[in-house]
User: Fold this.
Amino acid sequence: MTFTAKDFKKGQPRWCPGCGDHFFLASLQKAMAEIGVAPHNTAVISGIGCSSRLPHYMATYGMNTIHGRAAAIATGCKVANPDLTVWQVSGDGDGLAIGGNHFIHANRRNINLNMILLNNRIYGLTKGQYSPTSPRGFVSKSSPYGTVEDPFRPAELCFGARGHFFARAVANDAPNTVEILKAAHAHKGAAVCEILQNCVIFNDGTHESVYTAEGRKKNAIYLEHGKPMIFGENNEFGLMQEGFGIKVVKIGENGITEKDLLVHDAHCEDNTLQLKLALMEGPDFPIALGVIRDVDAPTYDEAVSAQIEDVKSKKKYHNFQELLMTNDTWEVK
Amino acid sequence: MKLFGKLQNYLNMANNVKDLDQVVVRFSGDSGDGMQLAGNIFSTISATVGNDICTFPDYPADIRAPHGSLTGVSGFQVHIGAEKVFTPGDKCDVLVAMNPAALKTQYKFCKPTSAIIIDTDSFTEGDLKKANFETLDAIAEMGIKNDVIAAPITQMVKDCLADSGMDPKAILKCRNMFALGLVCWLFNRDISIAANMLKEKFAKKPGVAESNIKVIQAGYDYGHNTHSSVSHTYTVETKGEKKKGLYMDINGNKATSYGFIAAAEKAGLKLFLGSYPITPATDVLHELSKHKSLGVTTVQCEDEIAGCASALGASFAGALACTSTSGPGICLKSEAMNLAVIMELPLVVLNVQRGGPATGLPTKSEQTDLLQALFGRNGESPMPVIAAISPTDCFDAAYMACKIALEHMTPVVLMTDAFVANGSAAWKLPNLADYPAINPPYVTEAMKGSWTPYQRNAEGSRYWAVPGTEGFTHILGGLEKDNKTGAISTDPENHDLMTRLRQEKIDKIQVPDVAVEGDADDADLLIVGFGGTYGHLHAAMDEMRADGKKVALAHFKYINPLPKNTAEVLTKYSKVVVAEQNMGQFAGWLRMKIDNFNPYQFNEVKGQPFVVSELVEEFNKIINK
Assistant:
């Protein structure tokens, strides 16, 4: 059976005009149609926040739960029924502040979830407080003199929690967003997709450098497994390894050719270079987009099911009455 | 002969006095001395020969306090009776004290007639110092006048296992078995039953089993030989009609786990437990984790929050979902419990209560979380509450909690406490076929097309559409929903209606009437309790009635909703006392539900089980007022 994006659509989104959530929603529905899992076999589970309203606009099974708990609730859902395709949708506050513990443990356990992190670096629904991804010094209603703390960098947190999949896209960059969502679904295990998303009301322009196609040409690099790392308006720049770091080079200068450039290896188990790529920031470096890390590993939900099957084949009791008889008993005659 | 004089007198008197058809033995020692195992084996042997049993382990919170210290004493009390016993007993008839610290801390559980068994080898100057004794004669220093069986247990165990090839440390670990053997002799217990148990327990280490059995025999023989002139040891005969069938010894946490398993099987659902370790509830996680061959899925989560949240996710996915914890964990789970209330999904939340507030007394027992269960959430958040009344009742209570959760699409709080969770009793193996069916209100094929998520059946429950079912995709969530469409709604009338619908759904749940035991027709005092204090309150009633008083007991297991006959029962008697291990939470709940209900109260928050003699004293005061 084939689906179209329309099969996944429901209702009228209530986000502010221009909100990155609109773009993302459309891409998610398109990706789901292309993935081809039926809406009734799909569950979309969110927490609380602007972006967590998303399940209301999906014609799938869904839950718009409580603040921060989406990953934990999704974990139970997936483990109880591994046949479901489960998407967990959170914002940066939901996923990394109040839900930070669940975020890292879902990654560590490697639950087969598609974990969407819509990162606008602000609390929107509560009207403009700094979030755990707001940069140091960020001025907001709750930090009128600027924050005095450093933000999380989601990739770093994901990798630190032994995450096996991390991808990044800009919300209004539909082709790339659809591509990483499909890759996340294809990946078995916890798959984190960071979506750089603008909040037009409280944090307008936060991802400005990459929020247009022209900007992305200049300030971003699309990583593709097995391809050399080339970027720039005219594909004139590349990335090379230098010591323990990465440097930007101009192709053709100092005798540098395409062959000298790093070739992306998303499947490399050692995440050292992948992390360096994920942490690149402007203006000196391009922002990495696409699938940055995609490494196979045993998933929790499959391991749970496999263990149950294994024990079933070894133990001699398979129902309640048989369980009772495994105890020391005596008879009253 | 001399050593046993008083005990013997006491035991001989037993023929004339009713309550001496029962005996209480307390094993105590350092927390590494294996007292729990010795106690367990002794109670199982007693149950095997047909006695009724009720046990209570009383262990310290420290994993391993300094060896020989007063805080490191671990106790295990077992009450065995020819007929039904309701409590582990206030005080013991025999105290086994493996070291001075045990003697010092446990002597308070002795009666003047109790016999005390000590290991003289562990009463050296150093041992005595650790227990803060000032002299070398602990018995005299404490002014103990009881009979003391002073046996050089350590040395005899060493001698007994000298040729076993075991290392000295391992040999010392068998001291508990010597004490067990001695107690078995004292009560004429067949030690072959213990031997068989040990053979099974150490099936993979036959050497260990053999050594332990040898030591039990040595302890038994020591009693036999040293005191062979004592013509009367003690037996507790089985009296009264016992229901025929197979029995086992089961503690409350295991019975709760079995209740969940049984309910899942009956409902044809996968059992899912999301949990986080916490005393005294952890054994439920341990127990359920064992039974993967029954398809039980357990997830040890990153925190209490995720324990409940993952269970709720599993419930959404169509499993029978449970989460297990104690009071501090409920604090953390309450937001996800509340989400279950508004999403109207089945969920069983087990609270094995301990002493609070905050970390409180982790290994001790209280009933102080009742109002937390009833009200500890934001908003109007009604939830059924069931409180198991005994270790074996945990099975039925857990089963019914699951049945109510599944059939009424609601989270249910199942309350037990450290006392019933760790205490054990003889349990007649149930036949699952005798238990009521569990039929969740699933959506039906006929509903396709017209169904909405908050459509309700006659009981007021919404229907369960499990993901994976075609034609029933929908969204649930923590935001208020329109009662018809299920869309987010902030309409004031709708919110008021939904609040009432959620309340009515709980109020409509059918629970059995509360039974009145004792002098139901003409009691001068009605004792009222709930949950784990049943045994103590029942024993207090029995004692008062034996003394000629007119007393009845109404003990509640269903707390919310209350049984339909609650008001009728509570207003029927001239005097009512609500006895509970908190500052009056159940009494307050009853007052809220019943007009002009003003009971006497007995409240105690010591972290210890009620003492029957104290209850009797207090209740007599009320009767005489």
